[in-house]
Specification:
Arc Repressor Mutant, subunit A; two-stranded antiparallel sheet; 4 helices; elongated; binds FE2/S2 (inorganic) cluster
């Protein structure tokens, strides 16, 4: 694969950047995530996560199953306060 290949489309991180970090000794997903912001885009690493783990696995000889992957969380969105107030009133109504 060409080293200019974009691995993380959300954060515009190339395969070369990932390989350079691994060569410098950053061999965990979290370390690479903190430096490059992979896995922190809108897809939350669904696209790039397995590719990065594969690179770490190839470089370290560890199986992908033995490598820790981050927890995938849903994107955070704002909630309008009136919706929270309405839900609280609804729950109070159910208790009464
Ligand atoms: S492709 Fe990496 S976070 Fe979306």
């Amino acid at each position: 694969m060409d080293e200019n290949t974009i691995i993380c489309r959300c954060s515009d991180v190339t395969l070369k950047e990932i390989r350079d970090l691994i060569a410098q000794g950053y061999v965990t997903y979290d370390e690479i995530k903190r430096i490059t912001r992979i896995g922190m885009g809108p897809c939350q690493g669904k696209t790039c996560g397995q590719l990065v783990l594969r690179e770490i696995s190839n470089a370290t000889g560890k199986s992908m199953a033995d490598l820790n992957f981050h927890n995938i969380r849903p994107p955070v969105v704002g909630v309008k306060l009136h919706l929270i107030a309405e839900e609280a009133k609804r729950q109070e109504g159910e208790k009464a």
